[in-house]
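pipeline stage [seq->struct] | target=Leucine carboxyl methyltransferase 1 | organism=Giardia intestinalis | residues=367
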Amino acid sequence: MVLDRASDIVTAATTSNDALLSKLSALRAGYLVDPALRAIHTKPSLPRKDPMINRGTWFRFTYIEQMAVAFAAKYNGNCAIVSLGAGLDTLYWRLQFTAQQEKKEGKQSYFHVKHWIEIDLPSITELKAKKFDLTHGEIINMPVSEDTTIRPFQEPQVILYRPKQEHAETVPEALRVELPGYRLYAANLEMRKTWMPMVRDIVANDKGDATLPVLFLSEVCLSYLDADTTIGIIKDLPTYFNSFGIVCFEMVNPSDSFGEMMQINMAERQVVMPSFVELGFTAQYRKIFQLNGYEDSYAREAGDVYRSFWPARRREIEQLELFDEFEQWNLIMGHYACIMGWSGVTNLEEMLNSIGQDTESPDAPDK
């Protein structure tokens, strides 16, 4: 069985819980609509965080969500989405809940994909399976890979969770939605020569060619991995997939005073983030993509992207909670980045720039 190191468990549990609490706070303040998120939080009250955190959470969540939606629409659902370090994320439940409502209303265009795959550590996936009423884990033996040298006592196995065919009536409706093509795997992302072939086999055609477009998502996941693992993931994706992109939201700029404070705060909670410390610069990520033969890449600080992101919706969001601490806001947003690399698929930068444009009037751009 895939075993977690103590540092992995602490980091994964802490960051997964942080993300959950931030999204619940944003939900409470009206930034998000997410029935599944509310359903897995059994406490009667929701947490409350600073308005800047809520607004940043909205952008982080919506950027990842809308890139997934746009990618699926581009390929009319004939694609796969793979969420790395998915944690307790509810994105697929949210998208399917909306899609099923739209189908009932007779709409012809709604979100769908051929495969939706999530990967995280066993300690997280076991918790997710319980909260989301998934099947009991099925152990799958994988071919022995060279990655086993990283952890000599680790057997080449992963654990697979799937949606249940039927749910008890006590399970909230938001968690009883159909989840076509959904798989949750317990696997350590360090073991990329185990999980990458596994994903490739899922998306491969009858001839064994991985030509199906695949979008990988990392919502502040790579930042917490060893730098060698992050570089290795970026390096190996082109080896296994012909048409793919990776969309990331990661921490950057570790070497200034604010970045150093972020490191100290997380270290006090026993959370390590090696890739943030060693690779956390937009230019560095672009260089890694370039050196590994990607067709193109994109990396900009979140604050820069936010200012031109979905203008109409952004202006609505900014009215939910007003604040004037813009220096602090700019500091926070300057230490995260939207990072993307792609080969054999549509230009992801153009896709990002098109989000929300169909709802804008000709004179609406807010650059």
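stage status: PASS
auto-comment: Residues 51-74 form the longest helix (24 residues). The two ends are 50 Å apart (CA to CA).
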